[in-house]
Design goal:
Structural class: alpha/beta
Keywords: GTP-binding, Nucleotide-binding, Nucleotidyltransferase, Transferase
Number of strands: 7
Shape: globular
Oligomer: single chain
CATH architecture: Alpha-Beta Complex
Strand order of the largest sheet: 3-2-1-4-6-5-7
Catalytic activity: phosphoenolpyruvate + GTP + H(+) = enolpyruvoyl-2-diphospho-5'-guanosine + diphosphate
CATH class: Alpha Beta
Largest sheet: 7 strands, mixed
Distance between the termini: 44 Å
Radius of gyration: 16 Å
Helix content: 25-40%
Number of domains: 1
Order of helices and strands: EHEHEHEHEEHEHHHH
Pathway: Cofactor biosynthesis; coenzyme F420 biosynthesis
Bound molecules: guanosine-5'-triphosphate, phosphoenolpyruvate
CATH topology: Spore Coat Polysaccharide Biosynthesis Protein SpsA, Chain A
InterPro entries: CofC, Nucleotide-diphossugar_trans
Protein name: Phosphoenolpyruvate guanylyltransferase
Amino acid sequence: MSQPRWAVVVPVKRLSAAKSRLRGALPGVPHEDLALALAADTLRAVLACPAVAEALVVTDDARVAAAARAAGAQVLPDQPDAGLNAAFRHGAAHAPAGWVAGLTADLPALRPTELAGALLAAQAGDDGVRRFVADAPGLGTVLLAAPPGVDLEPRFGVGSAAAHTASGALPLPGDWPSLRRDVDTADDLAAAARLGLGPRTAALVAAACPARSTS
Ligand SMILES: Nc1nc2c(ncn2[C@@H]2O[C@H](COP(=O)(O)OP(=O)(O)OP(=O)(O)O)[C@@H](O)[C@H]2O)c(=O)[nH]1
Ligand SMILES: C=C(OP(=O)(O)O)C(=O)O
């Protein structure tokens, strides 16, 4: 039997407001270009993942929407424009019946095989329970997965790993460094670069600091 395939919801904030903690991380690179590259590399990995049938990008940003459509994603408006969890709920409500995952759009080192491993692990329990992947420090969440017929019930934000656990979701323990490596700060970006960045982000890092691209 073939593995059931997933709809993955990927919310992206307006680029002018997104990733504020990263502002100035790449000297000479416009901040919005960096925020767009992070999302584009995340989405590229999502769409290259064999377990994924569909990506739904929730955004009100025209550049993000154009890049997402060009990559093959469906684009939904950021309704009701009430923050990240509302955006996840909106995307999940438009996903086809089946397995649904929510993923943050700040994973520029994401490898499709690691995403596939996490999605497969989320299906292994077959017990109707939501599962999540915590970020590298263990406090936040990068992926939340819900079985068919189960609400995604996203609780992203500060301390979201504990919030997801408190809501009945179970943490997935797998070793997926590129999935767990979300990028909020310049240090996170350096850590993601050590794992290997996607092409859009790598090009901007190289443009900001050419010496780094050859090391
Ligand atoms: N559509 C949508 N996406 C959001 C919203 N808030 C956050 N996101 C996305 O959710 C992901 C994780 O959020 P954060 O890491 O907090 O990102 P952020 O709010 O852009 O970053 P900071 O300004 O540094 O807090 C990022 O990919 C954001 O683009 C929102 O209100 N709407
Ligand atoms: C949105 C989240 O994280 P951060 O803002 O730290 O990326 C989260 O971990 O739920």
